[in-house]
Amino acid sequence: MRVGVVSPNILSNVRDYNAMNENPDIPWPFDSLAKRSSLLFDKLYISDNIDLTYEIIGGPSLFGNDHNGNTLEYLTRQGLILTPQDLGYSSGEAFLSENIKGKTADLHRRLLAVGNPSNNCGEGDYTYVGQPDIGEFEAHDGNHPRSEAGWDDPQIKVMERLYEGLLLQRNVAILREAGIEDIAIVGRLYGEKSISPDTHPVWEIILHEMPSLDIRAPWEDVLGFRAEQRTQHLIRSLRRWIRKVVAESWTSAELEDEVRELVYEYEKHIRTAGMAHGIGTLTCVITGTTELVEDIVKLRLGRIAQLVTAGMDRSVKFREAELQAPGRELALFPEVRKRF
Questions:
Q1: Last residue of a domain, one of 169, 199, 229
Q2: Does residue 161 have a pLDDT over 90?
Q3: What pLDDT sits at residue 308?
Q4: What span, in angstroms and rounded, lies between the C-alpha atoms of 332 and 317?
Q5: CA distances from 2 to 39, 42, 44, 161, 172 (A)
Q6: Is 166 in the same domain as 18?
Q7: What is the pairing mode between strands 182-187 and 43-45?
Q8: Is residue 210 part of a domain?
Q9: Per the domain annotation, does 338 fall within a domain?
Q10: Beta strand 182-187 with 81-82: parallel, antiparallel or unpaired?
Q11: Quick check: 288 pLDDT over 60?
Q12: Interhelix angle 201-209/229-246, nearest 10 degrees
């Protein structure tokens, strides 16, 4: 199982919340990230208590359930969001208790020291650790839960970055303790300079360069596309390419150039192959419909067989062209663009 770890801050932070309130046409950042990530990962991990996450980002309100909260709940029901229960644990507490050990325990201690303080929590209350950073939402009248000095304290931003960085590191470590090896961090609010297999720049580049799925595309269509046999084949090809890149030394600039060049070469090759083998066949079949009906009436079975055979031969050649195309490892990109 391949798991993508997403910062809960992507689901809810003041900056995006205010922007979306001012302009309802601004898409929810998590929605776009999750749609693209769903084509790379089997599961997305957000928090050890997804029910609490749901309440924070948009549980029941005066105006009915929030759309974002409903989307998260739907994706959890569909199995895209990984929960401790999926791994056989009765609760998030049991999941943490069983797997906080070794290096993970050190990361967890450091995370608790930074915390995710709330005005409603007393000392030693870690209810919101692991959840979206709620400090900016609870700041008022010049006060901020992260600082007694007030909003202008520069340490607030330092602590917010540290909280997210430690949280993502701990989540990766705890998933590994639970037996999941294939993990990558795919969504974060704050940048990170350190490079490891789970933070390799290839993930950021791939997600950035992958065509954005239409924000109007229903999740049902996205999950249906993901489940198709051809899509699964394209996903496996892209994953193999990513594994190869992770094992090598690439800069972000080199990766951007490589991804764009591979996709360009693939599309150019397919266009050429289509002109040679695909378009002519389709035209023949479509424009030959009337003739085909007449052949059936006259029982000219030989002519029918000739048309069908020609179409089959051409489609086989086209499939061979796809298999031989340069950049075929990234063929998922044009497929996404074509479908969404």
A1: 199
A2: yes
A3: 45
A4: 20
A5: 11, 5, 9, 26, 12
A6: yes
A7: unpaired
A8: no
A9: yes
A10: unpaired
A11: no
A12: 140
The token duo for 20 is 């979306």
* Cβ(266)–Cβ(327) below 8 Å: yes
Give the DSSP H or E segment for 260: helix 252-273
**Does one domain contain both 183 and 226?**
no
**CA-CA distances (angstroms) from residue 87 to 29, 49, 128, 173, 261?**
27, 13, 22, 15, 40
Q: CA 11, CA 23: separation in Å to the nearest integer?
A: 17
Could you read off the pLDDT of 310-329 as tens digits, one per residue?
444 445 454 555 656 777 88
Question: Does the residue 62 lie in any domain?
Answer: yes
Domain membership flag for residue 339: yes
- Per-residue pLDDT, averaged over 87-98, amounts to 95
Which amino acid makes up residue 110?
Answer: R
pLDDT for 280 equals 36
pLDDT range class, residue 59, cuts 50, 70, 90: low
Same domain, 229 and 151: no
Domain of 128? 2-199
CB atoms within 10 A of CB 321: 18
Residue with structure tokens 């309100």? 61
Domains contained in the chain, number: 2
Classify the C-alpha dihedral 93-13-40-27 as positive or negative.
Answer: positive
pLDDT at 216 > cutoff 50:
yes
Query: Are 221 and 135 part of one and the same domain?
Result: no
Residue type, 79: G
Using CB atoms within 10 A of its CB, is residue 244 exposed (0-12), middle (13-18) or buried (19+)? exposed
The answer to whether residue 196 scores a pLDDT higher than 80 is: no
Q: Are residues 173 and 227 in the same domain?
A: no
Phi/psi for 146 (5° steps) reads -90, -5
